[in-house]
Amino acid sequence: MRGWILLCLLVVCAWGCALRSSPAPPKWAVAIHGGAGTIERASMTPETDAAYRAALSAALETAGKVLREGGSSLDAVETVIRLMEDDPLFNAGRGAVFTAAGRNELDASIMDGATLNTGAVAGVTRTRHPITLARAVMEKSPHVMMAGEGADSFAQQQRLEMVDPSFFFTERRWQELEKTLKEQGDPIPARPAGAPKPQSSVSAQSAGEHKFGTVGVVALDSRGNVAAGTSTGGTTGKRWGRVGDSPIIGAGTYASNQSCAVSGTGVGEFFIRLTVAREICALVQYKNYGVQQAADEVIQKRLSALKGTGGVIVISPKGEIAWSFNTSGMYRAKMSAAAPAQISIFKEEP
Amino acid sequence: MRGWILLCLLVVCAWGCALRSSPAPPKWAVAIHGGAGTIERASMTPETDAAYRAALSAALETAGKVLREGGSSLDAVETVIRLMEDDPLFNAGRGAVFTAAGRNELDASIMDGATLNTGAVAGVTRTRHPITLARAVMEKSPHVMMAGEGADSFAQQQRLEMVDPSFFFTERRWQELEKTLKEQGDPIPARPAGAPKPQSSVSAQSAGEHKFGTVGVVALDSRGNVAAGTSTGGTTGKRWGRVGDSPIIGAGTYASNQSCAVSGTGVGEFFIRLTVAREICALVQYKNYGVQQAADEVIQKRLSALKGTGGVIVISPKGEIAWSFNTSGMYRAKMSAAAPAQISIFKEEP
Asked: For the segment B261-286, what is each residue's pLDDT rounded down to a tens digit?
């Protein structure tokens, strides 16, 4: 009898030790990006630097509030991306880059890692928050992806906030388009109807440096569910109804509780070819890679081998966060229930 | 000295044996599908059955000719899909289903397993061969995916064959749309401009049975390169610029010499959520699954678990061919340098 009691005690002790040796995952965690590209300390003013850090800090705080209060990872992703879509600093929603025809054509997607439910939109022009439309496609339609005017019509039918296309206009992006088209020797389209009168030239720095600027969020909530979302205006001067990776599930966005959640930013064509987001999660799921190792394998090795550029943020259902990019910078931030906010821009930052 | 010669001979012998023990892959191989769905022997006339088998046989012959003569797998994929796009039997190109607005909006994609180059188009309405446009996007543009009118403009600029949208009109598909919209209590749009005068009702059988009909080809060429392509009109009565899996790289189409090439058909929403095509190839690449095992895992288990329906064809760089579907039938065919043509429609066929 005493032998049995001793054995039981031993088992309980061993169990306790095992529990302690693998610490409980944080109750929630979040990572955010605001685009990767040629972002160098030498060419960024202190004001611009501070503006991006403040925007990322506000985004983290918003995410933290949702997640601390028990909100879902989907809610955190959508809420933060709405905020960033409204911020002209980023190439998403207001502040999106222009197509060669002088339009803002917006792409977004969202994915729920618990159910693999997902929604995506491409080329919308009248919906204020493309990420909310992506979520409506996921939750309120039998479809997963909608494009063009049809997607805007669905938004209207769902009573989402609609705006005049000129809502998305920013002077900086317009001058960026003019510069790009001039360099290519292409005609410059008429200034869009409803746009404010031309302003004096914005600084070359702010026009040149923001080649990318896609936004994305990955989050883990207290129920252990991961989610991912991405929103973008695409690339300056894009033509022919070009669709990038942001609305392509498996390329720019992916989430599964069985592996991880990813949002990407960069030259979308390479992200589609490499199915970057799904690839990272496949390495986690099938090869037992850690999220950092998987992200580095796909971004530093495979993306670089194709001469593609960009970056990703990754989160696992255990709350591990990774980011990886092969550009000189990526606007990025992370925070969890167990770790304070960290905001970084340049490569040499952690 | 004699010792060295003996050693060299031994090495050469061992090498020869090793080569012989894994038989050389067939010089070329191809698999084709013409859609999966509720296709049952009891409800198909002998004439319809014969028409599909003849079309699949012609498609195989076309692929065989390209590949036997040393053509690339990309050429085989494009050539066969062009043929099927012109055949009103299939839901691709001429014979595509109609949107709720009474339009034919066509999607296609193609991928080169040797380079991971790829091209995709969504929602084109004026380009006769969407698969050729997808290839032009891949080879003649800096982009990977184009949508809507922009994609048609690019086709025109590339001097591809353009047609009036009414070219894609078929009476059978129109009556299918009318039937679908009536059942849903939705308004029936005006008959498209340029469409021929209404004909007497086509048989209910031929209207009901072809719920799907996407076409796809996977091929291996004599240089050991795999390729995949898919072309579709989507689903009858689709709305809001709905995009399915066919133009989504990793969902409806994927090809990599490191794993396999896949083309899918079915309810595209599920194929996107599961990144079906990339998933099958990931299981081959990372878990050493055979192509049949990988296809069955994703289609019979995961797709069925989500209550999705459809099927895939798969080819490996070794020339192994697999198909898998969870519907009552899939129009399908395969052939290789080492094996004669096999054409099947119903589940109970091999």
From this structure: 999 999 999 999 999 999 999 999 99
pLDDT tens-digit map of B189-201 = 999 989 988 876 5
pLDDT of residue B41: 87
The single-letter code of the amino acid at A106 is L
- Rounded to the nearest 10 degrees, the angle between the axes of helix A130-140 and helix A148-157 is 80
B13-71 confidence digits (pLDDT tens) = 455 444 445 567 779 999 999 999 888 888 889 999 999 999 999 999 999 999 999 99
List, for residues A79-108, the tens digit of each pLDDT value.
Answer: 999 999 999 999 999 999 999 999 999 999
Hey, is A265 helix, strand or coil? strand
Catalytic site residue A214?
Answer: yes
Which amino acid belongs to residue B293?
Q
Q: What is the DSSP letter of B116?
A: T
Pick the residue from chain A with its C-alpha nearest to B280: A282
For chain B, give the percent of residues with pLDDT over 70. Answer: 90
* Cα-based distances in Å from A85 to A129, A171, A233, A301: 7, 16, 10, 31
Question: Which of B303, B302, B283 lies closest to B294 in space, CA to CA?
Answer: B283
Provide the token pair at A237: 């001067």
Helix, strand, or coil (residue B327):
coil
Given this model, what pLDDT does residue B16 score?
A: 47
Q: Answer yes or no: pTM beyond 0.95.
A: no
Task: List residues in chain B touching A: CB distance below 8 A.
Answer: 116-118, 122-123, 141-151, 153-154, 238-244, 248-251, 254, 268-269, 272-275, 278-279, 282-283, 286-287, 306
Low-confidence ranges of chain A (pLDDT < 70): 1-23, 200-211
Contacts of B313 (CB under 8 A, 6+ apart): B31, B32, B33, B216, B217, B218, B262, B263, B321, B322, B323, B332, B334
Alpha helix stretches (DSSP H) within A95-193: 130-140, 148-157, 171-184
Is A121:A133 a contact under the CB 8 Å cutoff? yes
d(CA B185, CA A41) in angstroms, rounded, equals 61
Q: Which of A150, A268, A283 sits opposite B240 (nearest CB)?
A: A150
How many angstroms separate the CA atoms of A33 and A261, rounded?
13
Mean pLDDT of B316-335: 97
**d(CA A212, nearest CA chain B) in Å:** 16
Buried b (16+ CB within 10 A) or exposed e, B218-244: bbbbbebbbbbbbbbbbbbbbbbbbbb
Taking alpha carbons only, the member of A253, A255, A205 closest to residue A227 is A255
Residue range B154-178, pLDDT digits in tens: 999 999 999 999 999 999 999 999 9
Catalytic residue, candidates A214, A253, A275, A327: A214
Query: d(Cα A317, Cα A350) in Å, to the nearest integer?
Result: 22
The SS3 of residue B322 is: strand
* B269–A144 CB contact, under 8 Å: yes
DSSP H/E element including A15: helix A2-21
- Indicate the average pLDDT of chain B: 92
Report d(CA A344, CA A322) in Å as an integer.
13
